[in-house]
Amino acid sequence: MASNEEFDFLSDEENFENDWKFDENDDISTYINSSTTPLSADTNKEVVNLGKAMTIVAENNSNERKVSRMDLNTTKAGMDGLDKDKINQIILEASKGSKFYENEKKREKQVQKRIEELQRKMASFTNEQKVKAKQAADKIVQELEQGRDLSRTIVHVDMDAYYAAVEMRDDPSLKSKPMAVGGSAMLCTSNYLARRYGVRAGMPGFIAKKLCPNLTIVRTNFDKYTKISHEIREVLAEYDRNFLPMSLDEAYLDITDYLRGNEGQNKRMGEVKEEESKDIEGKHDTGKIAGVKFESTDTQENVCAETKENDKTKTENAKDAKFIVRVKQETKLVEVKQETSKIEALPNHDFEVTKQVKVERAFDDDVTKYKQNEKDSEGTHRPNRTEAQETKGDIELEPIPLKAETAKHELDENSFNQQKGEGMITVGQSEAQGESDWDFGHGSSENDTSFLHEEPAVAEQEMFYNKVEEVVKEMRRKIEVKTQLTASAGIAPNMFLAKVCSDKNKPNGQFYLKPERDKIMDFVRELPLRKAFGIGRVSEQILTSVLKANTCSELYDRRHLMQLLFTPNACTNYLEISLGLGSTVVDVDRERKSMSTETTFKEINKPEEHLAKCHELCQELSESLKAHRLTARKIGIKLKTINFEVKTRVVTASFPVQQTEELFSHAKKLLVNEIRSSSPEPLRLRLMGVRAAELCEKGMVNESKQPTIISLMKKNGSVRERSISLNASQAAESSKACGPEQEVSLEHGSMSREDEVRHSEICSDLTVLDDHPSTSKEYTNDHVPSDQLGCHNFHGNAKTERSSNQAVSREEPTTFNCPVCGRDLTFRSGNALLQMNRHVDTCLSKQAVPGVLKYDSGQQTNKAKQSSKKRKRESSKNTNRTVKRKPMDRFVTKHTK
DNA sequence: ATACATACC
DNA sequence: GACTGGTATGTAT
């Protein structure tokens, strides 16, 4: 069991890691290699005893083998002794020749191409360019360094093998078996026994079975995980009521305030809840607007919830000139202190206050907290602060103080200039030198120790550190007592580091990276880049193969090259990573930007089935939109062919939509367009998705946006004309299509007069588009040869051979097979194509999908019924549809910026 | 602005 | 014999 422990410690939890193949946590004692030599092309012999796999190795040595995106990631310590290659071979065997694998190869080639381009580009740099680039990079580094904030204590809590742990807790017999949780298509997580076979989260079941034939697969029970997750969150909330859940088993907390005096906070919880629920408007004392944080220690959770509820308010108010405070340069935490009716830009600060903010309530705590901050960083951390700025009455914007490090910076440049003099600036150069200038600030006490407290404070600081550890231990213990499940935690001054730390002593452990720059730099020095948030397998590959950088320090050493190769955004991000910088703002109230549904299915290649599926998805999406009271101005579809090629298409609607039929009307056209484009081949899909973006709150649409739309439409002669040109049956048709959902769509019961007007305008508009696809720019297939538009329109069913436009426009009768109604139709006039398209479009709009099934065989109908039943089952099983999405509501990719 | 790619859980 | 789903964001065109 010793080996068990040894490897368990590495285990990453149920991330839905797409790249499980490369994960360093393939801690498979079963496949431990007696030799620690990493298997490479010339060590293939080691695989001989795997029999079948060996064949593949041999075979793949020629060219198959070079799918490096399928290679294992060997960057992490503790990997010695694992034969990841054996696992890889089995996986390779299982997927070899599959469409998935072929697609992976294709993508690999694309990445390879990108890499080659970058390499070429890099070879062309002159020394002069590099010198300049380095200066630019150093300037950014200086700015970043100045913004370094070590004042927060961020905790990342991560449950150990969460789903698997839950299942084992509830069925102890599973503890002794290799087990995974998930479906046959995809596993969510696995227990430690299974991991020893290489069975991991994100792995399809059939491959897992090959790796571990005895594997028990337990079906997911999200209800249970969700319920337990709530219990866990109750504990977390005691430490930070504004904590940020990332998923059911993972969350970030900012326990800074808790550490400063938890009694106060707990006491406040009750009071605030009552008060706050009454009036939302007046209590925006906390929130983050345009990069400025209005912070008040005591109402975080509630205000956060409100802000969420009021996302719209924020946006809207921006329009009304209510709160706009722009922080120049980059996002920094700015504290707004105390009640006031205005914000002023203070001289010599990086702020531009363009609008005024009104905060109606005063919180003494703000002041208290502020003073605490002040004390913490006295003389160093906030050097710009003056007494005058503390004056009550006006909100003060306090930038995170800049740490003066110019001298250091120049030193750095000098060392570079020396290199330049030798004309030796190349990739790998600094490696050759053996001396990295990465931790340029390291050891320079003038910078670093000044951050910390003076001598007398040392003991106090130790106490503080102990307290931090104890608090987090207590938190984990509470979780365990409550749920019988263990959690691991990482504690650090920012989210990036906290996340890495939580992995360090997993399972059931914690790691505290103390808020000292030296310690951070040491910690980060050998950190594999892949660990950094935002660096996935592709970026890693680029960084290793182009920049020859595997760790943060190596990345830092190549900063001049980065500067020349990558976009400013990417560079800044990479620099932050290499300096161990990350977001210090556990930011909960982010607006949702999109909402989508997608499903994978057995091949669908018939247009009517495509449309039926699309309609289903629109319905689902519509429900979600309604549940969140959102409407969308952008509607998109996502298609994945049976070859795993993904296509996305979007349209911008003329007005925000929410109803199934509205969504469908847009999605349908996008879809039909793709069906046409793929002709004469049928569109063979394995996945379809519908997405809504540019969301706005429903209420707003009716009140503010709607009149605009109507007036716009009224002004627009062509729209008007076409609307009018609808014949009676079409009009009836369209209002029928839109009709069924009217009531649901309106929050306050029956339609208002305005709504009715709008509604019929909508329907008309949509129908017009339906009926005249060639007059609507969005849906016209200008780029497609017109023979495709016509006969190819629907998988080459035209019975008359033609090869050009001219042929089509002749008087020859042309016969089409309509893919929707299935009838053969013959057109004689010159515009047979147009007629056919019209027919199909009309056919489609008539069907509005419930009707689609009428045209299908009984078999098809049953299938559709089954699938709808299945969906219902699933949604009743997962009563947590909204709950399931909730963590995602708060999903934050924030990484400073 | 749209499409595609990458990333995260 | 056949590799998820939801969301965000960056990059290229």
Describe the model:
- With 897 residues, this protein is an alpha+beta fold.
- Among the domains are: 125-149 and 537-588, DNA polymerase, domain 1 (Orthogonal Bundle), CATH 1.10.150.810; 594-700, Dna Ligase, domain 1, CATH 3.30.1490.100.
- It contains 36 helices and 20 strands.
- The strands form 7 sheets. It has a 5-stranded mixed beta sheet with strand order 5-6-1-13-14. It has a 4-stranded antiparallel beta sheet with strand order 15-18-16-17. Strands 3-2-4 form a 3-stranded mixed beta sheet.
- Strand 13, helix 19 (495-504) and strand 14 (510-512) form a beta-alpha-beta unit.
- Helix 5 (127-146) packs across helix 24 (568-578) and helix 29 crosses helix 31.
- The two termini are 45 Å apart.
- The model is unreliable at 1-30, 32-64, 72-81, 263-435, 440-453, 701-834 and 839-897 (pLDDT under 50).
- The chain binds a DNA duplex (9 and 13 nucleotides) through helix 4, helix 8, helix 21, strand 15 and strand 17.
- Its EC number is 2.7.7.7.
- Pfam families: IMS, IMS_C.
- Residues 368-395, 886-897 have a biased composition (Basic and acidic residues).
